[in-house]
Amino acid sequence: MHDIRAIRDNPDAYDRGWASRGMSPQTPAILDLDRKLRAAQTALQDAQGRRNEASKLIGQAKARKDEAEAQRLMAEVETLKGLMIDQAEQEKLSGELLSALLASLPNIPAPDVPAGADEHGNEEQRRWGQAAAIKAPKDHVALGEGLGLMDFEAAARTSGARFVYLKGQLARLERAIGAFMLDIQTGEHGYTEVSPPLLVRDEAVFGTNQLPKFAEDLFKTTDGKWLIPTAEVSLTNMVLGQILEEGDLPMRLTALTPCFRSEAGASGRDTRGMIRQHQFYKVELVSIVAPEKSDEEHERMTDCAEAILKRLELPYRTMLLCTGDMGFGARKTYDLEVWMPSQGQYREISSCSNCGDFQARRMDARVRRAGEKGTRFLHTLNGSGLAVGRTLVAILENYQDEGGRIAIPPPLKPYMGGETHIG
């Protein structure tokens, strides 16, 4: 959400920001609705004031038995009542249109975000790890099905496309990956583990900017609740409508949850395998901080996500997303992309975003500094630490041998009963 006062003060800055995302100027329509809203508010207040004054004068006119003046004033009051109804309706309409327009517009990119139309404008920041030399690498589907531990056909019969059954050691490996990630983020990086709701109300998905623009990407239950597309929704909305004390910050939260996505905009993309599914597990990282701390926290969060890939010895690169490739609510985003031998390229496995006060305005979440009466909007950040399914895919492909066995990364062996290989 955006601050209308800031837009009034510097409309060009907002139009430049939206233009960098490939959008046409938005402030003319915003400021026009804002003028109509304020004009209606002023007219309503003036009419209310005049009605109150006329009502007093009616009593005075009757006291001096000036019936003609009393009748004139009563007629004026009736006219003012009609005017007040009209202006109240105009105020409501303009306010709703303005709120809807502001809610439909993405966040403004940070000054250091590179300009670009799509992923080709992203900038590589660093690389880590050396890709193993694997002769004729198989993809994760061939590996999983070859082991008899991954079944897409059975999942398609029961649930349709973009689902999978994992069995035996692969099911255990998925569980091991999630537990390992949580243990690192809570034990070493200071995140508090949360077991959050998986079903949320409209206010929650609006607060983290999935509504209204991305409703088609979500699953909705018959009673009007939404299945979370990521634990970001549940975790960030823990401060929905709250005023926190600055001494309570930063809040660092993590959760391992199933995530549910319709993938409405991904028709034909990654239809093979586990890269893009309707249901998957992810360890989410959320930070809620004071405004002046969010840039520093963004770097820290990205480091925490990278630490998992380093521990698992999975080669990756860190990309700074350009203006045209960032998510709707993000002010600045780093993507971590892990090496996939079968594809000969890096694929996204984590996205860490600083949303600034964008989500906090939608949630009305604020912070109060000690000794001050006023409040400020919080800053929120979120990231994957990591996507469990894609991590499993990366392990299968990077730790395969020519016979189709999978070596278990050393940090995961304690979670796998000490086993060294799958298959």
Strand and helix layout:
Elements: H1 4-9, H2 11-19, H3 27-63, H4 67-103, E1 123-128, H5 140-146, E2 150-151, H6 152-158, E3 165-166, H7 168-187, E4 192-193, E5 199-200, H8 202-207, E6 219-220, E7 226-227, H9 231-236, E8 243-245, E9 251-260, E10 279-289, H10 294-311, E11 316-320, E12 332-340, E13 345-354, H11 358-363, E14 366-368, E15 376-377, E16 379-387, H12 388-398, E17 406-407, E18 421-422
Parallel strand pairs: 4-9, 8-14
Antiparallel strand pairs: 1-11, 2-3, 5-7, 6-7, 9-10, 10-16, 11-12, 12-13, 13-16, 14-15, 17-18
Structural notes for this entry:
- By secondary structure, the chain is an alpha+beta fold.
- Helix content is 40%, strand content 20%.
- It has helices spanning 4-9, 11-19, 27-63, 67-103, 140-146, 152-158, 168-187, 202-207, 231-236, 294-311, 358-363, 388-398, and strands spanning 123-128, 150-151, 165-166, 192-193, 199-200, 219-220, 226-227, 243-245, 251-260, 279-289, 316-320, 332-340, 345-354, 366-368, 376-377, 379-387, 406-407, 421-422.
- An eight-stranded mixed β-sheet has the order 1-11-12-13-16-10-9-4. A three-stranded antiparallel β-sheet has the order 5-7-6. A three-stranded mixed β-sheet has the order 8-14-15, with no helix packed on it.
- The chain starts with a helix and ends with a strand.
Reported for the largest beta sheet, the result is:
8 strands, mixed
Query: What is the helix tally?
Result: 12
**Estimated share of beta-strand residues:** 15-25%
Oligomer: single chain
β-strand number:
18
Mean pLDDT: 96
Spatial strand arrangement across the major sheet: 1-11-12-13-16-10-9-4
Q: SSE string, helix = H, strand = E? A: HHHHEHEHEHEEHEEHEEEHEEEHEEEHEE
How far apart, in Å, are the first and last alpha carbons?
A: 51 Å
* Morphology: elongated
CA gyration radius, whole angstroms: 28 Å
